[in-house]
Amino acid sequence: MSKTNKLDKENLRQVIIDSPKQFAKGFALAKNIQLKKQKITSICISGMGGSSLPVDLLRTYLDDLFEKNPKNNQALEIIQNRSYTFPEKTKTNCLHILSSYSGNTEETISALNEVVKLKLPAIGIMHGGKLKELCKKNNIPYIILPAVSQPRYATGYFFATILQVLINLKLVEDKTKKIVESAKKMESSVLKSETAGKNLAKKLVGKTPLIYTTDKFKSVAMVWKIKTNENSKTPCFYNVYPELNHNEMVGYTLPQGKFHVITLADPTDHSQILKRMKITAKLLKAKDIDTTFFEMPKADTFTKMFEILFIGDWTSYYLALAYGQNPTPVDMVEDLKKNLA
User: Using CB atoms within 10 A as the burial measure, which of 5, 205, 222, 301 is most buried?
Assistant: First the structure.
């Protein structure tokens, strides 16, 4: 186990270090999950918070996979449901994946009850809870995830298990070997990115972080935002180029707070997007708003996403410690659940 700060009571630092190992384990967990042969043209994944954010990353990965090799694309639509009920169109030729780490997320349980009522094909993914009980009761295949400190740190498990299910159903090409190899290399790079995160955290104290990136990687920016909210216990927002240049940027004419922009640049993106990033940073600097740039590695989409996310993990972790916070618990979420019960 790694040395940890006294504020880090659940040793989240070690959880971050071990996170690349989740992919291989996740693929193995879902290897034998099968459904009766049927026509599937879409996937609806119902989940909230940390049980849903991996799906955004998976969609980015699959969009790239389908774009590079159109033969992989079997007109498979990936739909995310972040509410109590799912869209009408998901009631035909659609596989429903119910994703809740705790197994007790009320929105996801509501979606499962609708699935059962309509007798729709489904698979559950959870650590335990009511979702497991309902899947077992209704003969719905399910995957049990290993214990983690918080759902947002089961990203590798969710990403891999859902992808493996799609592979099992022959809906996407099997690239698991390549992903596992990439994740293995990340076991060393995750530690190398700790210093960058620690240094950025120092710059962010007393400021509101803004995560800016390209439209392609908006899922990555969203995960950075979520980790900052939940680890650092502070507001954080995100937006994408070039859209932000047409509206949000003008808001800094009269900034109402202290901000710091974190730009996640893909070096292979359109030259005008990269130019916009640099010009925007210059314009914001005139308003006393600094920008820190991070360049994604020149690698495949999977590696780009997760390598840059490690820096976000470390940044939010050390920002939490700078604010005197335990980075793991989400007390306000738990308070809300108690009031809803």
Answer: 301
Q: Which helix (H) or strand (E) holds 312?
A: helix 301-322
Asked whether residue 1 carries a pLDDT value surpassing 50, the answer given is: no
Distance of CA 91 to the CA centre of its chain: 26
Query: What fold is seen in the domain 12-181?
Result: Rossmann fold (3.40.50)
Whether residue 75 is predicted with pLDDT greater than 90 in this model: the reply is no
Q: What is the pLDDT of residues 143-201, one digit of tens each?
A: 999 999 899 999 999 999 999 999 999 999 999 999 999 999 999 999 999 999 999 99
Residue 8 CB contacts under 8 Å (≥ 6 apart), including other chains: 317, 321, 326, 327, 328
Beta-ladder partners of 291: 261
Q: How far apart are CA 303 and CA 61, in angstroms?
A: 10
Query: CA–CA distance from 311 to each of 33, 139, 167, 182, 196 (Å)?
Result: 33, 41, 30, 17, 7
Q: Does domain 193-322 have CATH number 1.20.1290.10?
A: no
**Whole-structure pTM value:** 0.93
Domains 12-181 and 193-322 agree in fold:
yes
Asked if 57 and 26 touch (Cβ cutoff 8 Å), the reply is no
CA separation for the pair 244, 30 (Å, rounded): 39
